């Protein structure tokens, strides 16, 4: 197994935005070989976590979508090291992606650095064949993603009632366009059986080489405001592999990235981090991860207990069996 590098540092909510930007750039600079990969890249894609609807704040920072200062630090670092074409965007529900990017302050950063905004819902579309499918052999996605030679997943640290945690791989769920897969997408894709395998497929298709988790503030219980509660982990995580980065992020959240289904918070669906590792797309093993920085001693345990779903392993297993029967019907 190749060695992965993950950088973890504390970043309190009260940290000035300019310091956040500087810290993000400093963390990225610690990833070995990144500058060389950026110089070779011709077409870069940044998957933003834009949220849904409005973007509520906690301690003056958005808690269910990426903080603009974290994105600004990433954008400045990119422009310092590459003149490649950069596409940045998402495919959120409940609000037009461009409106979301504008309201969150992301569009101003995109324009400042000469990036192009990408609405992942809009056509034209192209067919992308999955090299080692876990769920589907192919996906119809935005044709603008063709010829992307470096992908970045810029995610928010949150709990998720099916996935347990939502980090850089769950962030890729915004790739499938709603005109093809339906709106909301949970009617076709967001199920206990399909979701973890779809995340593995999307990771295999794009395999982000820059994985950035904004955990300055985050969301517990569930991933969106109105369902989850805001928390302030005060953390940033940067890595060069999505499986390893999410494993470190999960451990900080008090979650075992190697846990089997039925172990909280993976009550309703298979653990997508473990599944993606088993497909050879990265490692969750501590021995395979060069961790730069100290895992903070004070950790905020994340949980899905307290959501509207069953709160026991038995209840979750029954819900899983019901999903299987529905899929067979």
Structure description:
With 329 residues, the protein is of the alpha/beta class. Helix content is 30%, strand content 22%. It is built from ten helices and 14 strands. Strands 1, 2, 5, 6, 9, 10, 11, 12, 13 and 14 form a ten-stranded mixed sheet that branches. Strands 3-4 form a two-stranded antiparallel ribbon. A hairpin with an 8-residue loop joins strand 7 (125-129) and strand 8. Helix 1 (17-28) packs across helix 3 and helix 7 (194-206) crosses helix 9. It is globular. The termini are far apart.
Topology:
Blueprint: E1 4-10, H1 17-28, H2 34-40, E2 43-48, E3 57-58, E4 61-62, H3 68-81, E5 85-90, H4 97-103, H5 106-112, E6 116-119, E7 125-129, E8 138-142, E9 150-160, E10 164-166, H6 178-181, H7 194-206, E11 210-220, E12 229-231, E13 235-239, H8 242-252, H9 272-278, E14 289-292, H10 313-328
Parallel strand pairs: 1-14, 2-5, 2-9, 5-6, 9-11
Antiparallel strand pairs: 1-13, 3-4, 7-8, 9-10, 11-12, 11-13
Give the tags:
329 residues; alpha/beta; two-stranded antiparallel ribbon
State the helicity in percent bands.
25-40%
Question: Terminal Cα separation, in Å?
Answer: 40 Å
Shape: globular
What profile does the largest beta sheet have?
Answer: 10 strands, mixed
What is the chain-wise order of helices and strands? EHHEEEHEHHEEEEEHHEEEHHEH
Low-confidence stretches: 307-311
Number of helices: 10
Please identify the structural class as seen in this structure: alpha/beta
Number of strands: 14
Mean pLDDT: 89
Portion in beta strands: 15-25%
Rg for CA atoms: 18 Å
């Amino acid at each position: 197994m190749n060695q992965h590098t993950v950088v973890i540092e504390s970043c309190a909510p009260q940290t000035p935005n300019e310091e956040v930007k500087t810290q993000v750039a400093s963390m990225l600079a610690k990833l070995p070989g990144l500058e060389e990969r950026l110089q070779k890249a011709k077409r870069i894609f940044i998957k933003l976590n834009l949220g849904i609807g409005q973007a509520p704040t906690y301690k003056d920072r958005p808690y269910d979508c990426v903080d603009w200062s974290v994105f600004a630090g990433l954008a400045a670092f990119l422009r310092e090291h590459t003149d490649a074409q950069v596409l940045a965007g998402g495919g959120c529900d409940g609000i037009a992606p461009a409106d979301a990017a504008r309201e969150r302050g992301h569009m101003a950063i995109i324009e400042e650095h000469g990036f192009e905004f990408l609405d992942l819902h809009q056509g034209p579309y192209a067919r992308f064949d999955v090299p080692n499918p876990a769920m589907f052999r192919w996906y119809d996605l935005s044709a603008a993603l063709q010829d992307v030679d470096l992908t970045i997943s810029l995610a928010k640290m949150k709990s998720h009632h099916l996935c347990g945690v939502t980090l850089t791989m769950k962030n890729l769920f915004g790739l499938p366009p709603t005109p093809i897969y339906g709106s909301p997408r949970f009617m076709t894709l967001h199920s206990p059986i399909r979701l973890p395998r779809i995340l593995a497929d999307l990771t295999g298709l794009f395999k982000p080489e820059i994985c950035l988790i904004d955990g300055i503030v985050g969301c517990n219980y569930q991933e969106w405001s109105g369902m989850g509660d805001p928390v302030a982990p005060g953390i940033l995580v940067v890595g060069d592999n999505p499986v390893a980065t999410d494993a470190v992020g999960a451990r900080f959240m008090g979650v075992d990235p190697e846990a089997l289904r039925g172990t909280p918070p993976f009550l309703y669906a298979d653990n997508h981090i473990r599944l993606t590792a088993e497909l050879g797309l990265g490692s969750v093993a501590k021995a395979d991860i060069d961790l730069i920085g100290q895992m903070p001693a004070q950790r905020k345990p994340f949980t899905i207990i307290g959501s509207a779903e069953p709160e026991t392993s038995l209840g979750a297993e029954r819900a899983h069996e019901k999903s299987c029967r529905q899929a067979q019907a």
